[in-house]
Specification:
- The structure holds three protein chains of three kinds.
- In chain A, 75% of the residues lie in helices and 2% in strands.
- Chain A is mainly α.
- Chain A has a domain at 274-471.
- A two-stranded antiparallel ribbon of chain A has the order 1-2.
- Chain B has one domain: Orthogonal Bundle (Helix Hairpins).
- In chain B, helix 1 (2-20) packs antiparallel against helix 2 (24-45) and helix 2 (24-45) runs antiparallel to helix 3.
- Chain B is elongated, with a radius of gyration of 20 Å.
- By secondary structure, chain C is mainly α.
- Chain C has one domain (51-223).
- In chain C, helix 6 runs parallel beside helix 8 (198-223).
- Chain C is globular, with a radius of gyration of 22 Å.
- At the A-C interface, helix 1, helix 2, helix 4, helix 5 and helix 6 of A face helix 1, helix 2, helix 4 and helix 7 of C.
């Protein structure tokens, strides 16, 4: 078995075939078989993506996988970066934990549809992380979005219907903007391949149409990447939708949209300096708004939802800044957000009258430490890198603002922690599996930036995104 | 030029409907109008003067229009249909729970029935 | 309230004006072919062996998009099944005799047209998606006129096997030619019905999948969701 075996297309093709065959699994073995097939698929995909991630480290500029045997830009290619591969590994890992968690649920009917939707949101996010073609990115965005709509409304309750319809309307208007952006880009540059588009753009320059295109891409991905004011759908969804789905929203659709923005803003448009200030302020406002709103919430899940928006704002700032340090910060903050908020949401779904379940106290501590970017969590390094990047670029006002609102975040998180820690609620054995696993992973991840080899790894992460000719 | 303006006006009409109407069904109609506008825009971007359909025929040698946007639009149309179906079923769900599809009434009912966590 | 309408108008007019202006100045209507388009116009017939360039792009060059597209349709079906509340079937008024008798004549013809469109998808305008819509319209007419419900289980099976077939043909390409969706069958002669390698096969699978999926969506909406 050589490394060539780890072709991401193999995984995507087989996963799709298995999802398509879901009605047949159900007819053969009912709900149980559908569940078992999904669990095996997620476990296999997690391991497979670890292999792909390892393979991606050997290609500093990113591994190009041709589809259909045509050369880029004429055929679609996957552009597998280490960053994207790691995030997709996490998506499948979280999906695995989610479906273990969902096995105790008996109100999600028909179950085989639920499992298919879980698979497809993970698969769509994986496609968004890996693809190297702008229109293909749009298609996977829609797959992720539709799976998210389906999961969000799946419980058929009053609240989920209300939350979902707002989400759908915003996301669909955004997707129309996305297509206009693609029309502008294709008309002007005559290509849909990301790397090729960047090369062409260097000769064309940032003209008016390209500026419009950037703005429309921002609107298009801003809804799912939770950028203010396009994130107003999110608090209700985060409040009412089951926690295993929220885990996939955090690690899948929202991260994938942020990554798509990274691709467009850094890889295709090459961080246009003219618009940099605007983007940074949008990110800061997102962060500030979310933290202030989170502070005043009386419901823990709603507060967590707003905190999650705040993290998205930070990631957006880091991506938009686009320097080496900032990109490293973005990577670490993304991982931190996936791990810590997912743990907290899993626990938040099981809060009783008097606080959090007692058998997940350690995950609870870890989740809160991670949410405020403290050690032993990887977000600690992320935030430090972000501060360093802002200082290096000379944005002192933003430096102070982020520090200020981070203190707000610590304040309300501490309040919630105190009120939740002394609980006696009980989580079932299967259900407590997910937060405990995530805690172990997050603890292991913290040591990464301390190992000299791993610092090297961070360089590999950002290598494909460093611009040779910034405009 | 006229094609661009027509296509963009369709998108504009759709956006106007989404921005001003409260009825969810009307909002979905607006989104679908905007979608058709986007599809027209994509097609017009690929137009070539005096071009013909990008299909080879024996003994016919005329310049062809850009086939790429046509392929993209085929994808975009299907995606639009799929989203519309999904959105429509959510609207049916909303109607079942709230007895209305007016968004402002739905929001009012949600705020009213909320037990203090809004 | 007045203000809202005025603001919406201003926004819409600004949007149309700015985008139309920048498009017209930078990408004038009827401009020359782009780099991509030139390549496709010159090389498609040679590389894929079929004369319909749109089909070549949809199924071959950008076949991965199309796989994503049928996934989106699957998602619509799943969403409708999952979200719609199940209600007992309501009594529907009996259809008019004209419809009742007309369907017997029209139904096979529509099916035939659909089959023709999908089989010639790589030669003439048409293909899997168009044929899928046509065939689904036949079943829609059937449901409306006879107020009967179809056996959705068999539609679901058709759809899943066709979809899995598409994905697995793609995977087979990895082993046969080193790339997903690689066209590993002989391409045949241009303009022949049996030409283009995997393209017609994939398009027929897409036609099956799209038609059964659209039928499922419509029929679930008419019934009001899946039985649970």
């Amino acid at each position: 078995m050589t490394l060539k075996f780890f072709d991401p297309m193999l995984m995507i093709g087989i996963s799709l075939a298995i999802v398509f065959l879901m009605p047949i699994w159900r007819a053969l073995g009912g709900k149980k078989l559908a569940w078992a097939v999904s669990v095996l698929l997620y476990a296999f995909n997690t391991l497979f993506m670890i292999g792909v991630s390892y393979r991606a480290t050997l290609y500093p500029e990113g591994l190009i996988v041709k589809i259909g045997g045509f050369n880029p830009p004429f055929g679609i290619v996957l552009h597998v970066t280490f960053w994207g591969a790691v995030l997709s590994t996490f998506v499948w890992f979280v999906a695995f934990l989610s479906i273990m968690y969902a096995s105790t649920r008996n109100d999600a009917e028909p179950a085989y549809v639920y499992y298919s939707l879980l698979t497809l949101i993970a698969l769509g996010s994986t496609g968004m992380f890996l693809t190297g073609d702008i229109f293909n990115l749009f298609v996977f965005t829609e797959i992720t979005a539709l799976a998210a709509f389906g999961l969000s409304a799946f419980m058929k309750k009053k609240e989920t219907a209300y939350a979902t319809i707002k989400y759908i309307i915003m996301a669909e208007v955004a997707s129309a903007f996305l297509l206009v952006a693609i029309a502008l880009l294709y008309g002007k540059l005559g290509t849909l391949n990301m790397l090729d588009a960047h090369q062409t753009l260097k000769t064309v320059g940032m003209t008016g149409a390209m500026v419009l295109s950037v703005l429309f891409f921002l609107i298009g991905y801003g809804v799912e990447a939770e950028i203010f004011p396009l994130n107003l759908w999110a608090p209700d969804v985060y409040r009412y939708v089951p926690e295993e789905v929220i885990a996939l929203f955090i690690s899948g659709s929202s991260k994938a949209a942020a990554f798509a923005w990274l691709r467009m803003w850094v890889m295709v448009f090459g961080v246009p300096q003219k618009m940099l200030q605007v983007m940074l302020w949008i990110g800061i406002v997102t962060f500030a708004f979310a933290e202030v709103m989170a502070y005043s919430q009386k419901n823990f899940r709603r507060a967590l939802g707003y905190a999650s928006l705040g993290q998205a704002g930070l990631v957006f700032v880091a991506i938009s800044l686009g320097s080496e340090l900032a990109l490293k910060a973005a990577f670490l903050l993304m991982l931190n957000h996936i791990l810590s908020e997912t743990i907290l949401f899993y626990i938040a779904g099981n809060i009783g009258e008097d606080g959090a379940p007692a058998n997940v106290r350690i995950p609870l501590v870890f989740g809160f430490l991670g949410a405020v970017s403290m050690p032993p969590f990887i977000g600690f390094w992320g935030k430090i890198f972000l501060f360093m990047a802002l200082a290096k670029a000379g944005y002192w006002v933003m430096f102070v603002l982020i520090a200020l609102f981070s203190i707000v975040e610590i304040a309300y998180m501490y309040k919630w922690f105190v009120s939740l820690y002394k609980g006696t609620g009980k989580m079932e054995l299967v259900r407590s599996f997910s937060p405990i696993m995530l805690t172990l992973v997050s603890f292991a991840m913290w040591f990464l930036p301390l190992i000299p080899k791993a610092v090297n790894l961070l360089d590999i992460v950002i290598k494909p995104f460093i611009q040779k000719g910034v405009m | 030029m006229m094609f661009y303006i027509a296509a963009l006006s369709l998108i504009g009409i759709g956006l106007y409907v989404v921005l001003t109407k409260k009825n969810l069904v009307k909002v979905l109609i607006g989104i679908s109008i905007a979608d058709s506008g986007v599809n027209l825009l994509l097609i017009s971007v690929g137009y070539l003067k005096n071009g013909t359909a990008p299909i080879l025929e024996k003994g016919l040698n005329k310049p062809m229009v850009d086939p790429v946007p046509q392929a993209l639009v085929l994808t975009a149309i299907v995606i639009g249909v799929a989203t519309l179906a999904l959105a429509m079923s959510v609207v049916i769900d909303v109607k079942r729970h709230f007895g209305t599809v007016e968004l402002d009434k739905v929001i009012k009912m949600m705020r009213g029935g909320d037990n203090g966590d809004a | 309230m007045r203000l809202k309408y005025i603001l919406a108008w201003i926004f819409v007019i600004l949007f149309v004006g700015v985008v139309a202006y920048s498009l017209q100045t930078e990408v004038p209507f009827g401009h020359d072919l782009t780099k991509l388009a030139k390549y496709y116009v010159d090389n498609t017939a040679r590389e894929t062996g079929i004369p319909n360039f749109v089909t070549a792009i949809v199924v071959s060059y950008r076949g991965f998009d199309t796989l994503g597209e049928v996934t989106v349709l699957l998602l619509a079906t799943l969403g409708v099944i999952g979200i719609l509340p199940w209600e007992k079937h309501k009594k529907v008024k009996k259809a008019h005799p004209v419809l009742l008798w007309g369907i017997r004549i029209v139904f096979p013809i529509i099916l035939l047209v659909g089959v023709y469109i999908v089989i010639h998808g790589h030669l003439t305008p048409g293909g899997g998606f168009q044929a899928g819509a046509v065939v689904a319209s036949a079943f829609l007419l059937y449901m409306v006129s006879l107020s009967a419900h179809l056996d959705l289980e068999s539609f679901a099976f058709t759809e899943s096997i066709a979809g899995a077939g598409f994905a697995l043909i793609g995977v087979a390409g990895i082993f046969a030619g080193g790339a997903f969706l690689y066209n590993f069958l002989p391409k045949g002669n241009l303009f022949d019905l049996f030409s283009g390698g995997i393209i017609p096969i994939v398009y027929i699978l897409i036609g099956l999948k799209v038609s059964s999926e659209l039928t499922e969506v419509v029929s679930h909406m008419m019934k009001g969701g899946a039985e649970q």
